[in-house]
């Protein structure tokens, strides 16, 4: 009897020790009471306990299914964004560094979003002061006049500052157009590349990589053409058929491999969801060996279209690289769209990133390329940046920031220099299964004996927005390795963290071992079982 009591109390102690607890919560609510606000459950951490009945929204986490790594969330550092940020630095450098810290600091425990993915145009885009490429000498096929300093110095100084806050930021570069002289219309604005310049264009991209390197900027990925199905005569764009992108990709890959850029990825397509089963699939058919994957934009189609690509090329990477906010839209409606389609939705459809368009713009969506009709041509409503920087040196954060910050916190490395999070299996069941949209991640450790971090990002959009506004908090159960936690999700976005050993183990097995050792009198073995149980 004594032994049974002892065994039972050992079991109870084991169960407590082996159970996970939610300690860390970030939250953004529909009414903006919480804006990427950090808190710990009060008064105690939330325990995963022996399961009771499932709530009407029951979130199941399946960490035996591990999918793609997510390398980060962020936006594009356009010439306009760089000039506004550098202007802020000149006007109020304390405020500038505070902003960069809040956006990019990825240190564990920092009160910051830890954004880790930045896309940078090569040459002009619709957010530049004028059209320019990095070699505007007509007919210069040997690219003797290529000059990385044709790009505004603000771009490199702000990028360097960002990397000084977070040296893990993944930089992805790409042109909005080849130099005008390589194109049929002789201008960067619209038209298409003359096929005789395919190799010259590959060389131009190699020189761009070398130029960024000379500025101290390591490049994670390069794309060949932004939006190859968009030709617009009012700003840098280029219609580029699949065969042309395939040919440039093949030639660029070999140039990169022989010039010290073999670990830099080439990402194809860079255009809308609606053609996910078309252009990017044909690109992989024609030149798949040279591309690590493809990337998507939001302006046509739906995130579920990503499956038209991933179902045919499950081993290729997918990135989500562009969507722009529009001035005057509803804050909470935007958050719902961004979480459902981009910051939870796109990773759930295989993507390794989630990016908005301009990192920073002013309150009018400027500065915009003079004369362009992009982003409503400078009339209201224009495009909105992730950050708004005002002429008086103040700044504010838009809904685009709060959405990506909630997602970023789920995948940032736990250890300095450690891996980014990987998506794991999740599903929601119950009568209220429609009320929650969930993304789930595991972040492994540099020391594999340390517990992994598990995280979920949850959108509760149960607000009856289309009828009588009625935001309803959802009391959900969270199932993990046979244990259950409960949390009431307010209408908004919530990111939760807990820790667990790398491998699942069964408490019942451990109990059997413990019972056996108590009965056989070999109590000495107990600490060993406990130790192995905790380590998994
Ligand atoms: C949520 O549901 C759990 C059981 O599933 C229950 O124990 C808890 O009291 C509920 N919380 C609230 C605030 O309703
Ligand atoms: C990042 O955050 C950590 C923790 O709060 C802090 O110690 C560090 O100084 C910050 N780094 C920068 C560059 O601001």
UniProtKB/TrEMBL annotation:
<dbReference type="InterPro" id="IPR001139">
    <property type="entry name" value="Glyco_hydro_30"/>
</dbReference>
<keyword id="KW-0378">Hydrolase</keyword>
<dbReference type="InterPro" id="IPR013780">
    <property type="entry name" value="Glyco_hydro_b"/>
</dbReference>
<dbReference type="Pfam" id="PF02055">
    <property type="entry name" value="Glyco_hydro_30"/>
</dbReference>
<keyword id="KW-0732">Signal</keyword>
<dbReference type="InterPro" id="IPR017853">
    <property type="entry name" value="GH"/>
</dbReference>
<feature type="domain" description="Glycosyl hydrolase family 30 TIM-barrel">
    <location>
        <begin position="70"/>
        <end position="328"/>
    </location>
</feature>
<feature type="signal peptide">
    <location>
        <begin position="1"/>
        <end position="19"/>
    </location>
</feature>
<dbReference type="InterPro" id="IPR033453">
    <property type="entry name" value="Glyco_hydro_30_TIM-barrel"/>
</dbReference>
<dbReference type="GO" id="GO:0006680">
    <property type="term" value="P:glucosylceramide catabolic process"/>
</dbReference>
<keyword id="KW-0326">Glycosidase</keyword>
<dbReference type="GO" id="GO:0016020">
    <property type="term" value="C:membrane"/>
</dbReference>
<comment type="similarity">
    <text>Belongs to the glycosyl hydrolase 30 family.</text>
</comment>
<protein>
    <submittedName>
        <fullName>Glycoside hydrolase family 30 protein</fullName>
    </submittedName>
</protein>
<dbReference type="GO" id="GO:0004348">
    <property type="term" value="F:glucosylceramidase activity"/>
</dbReference>
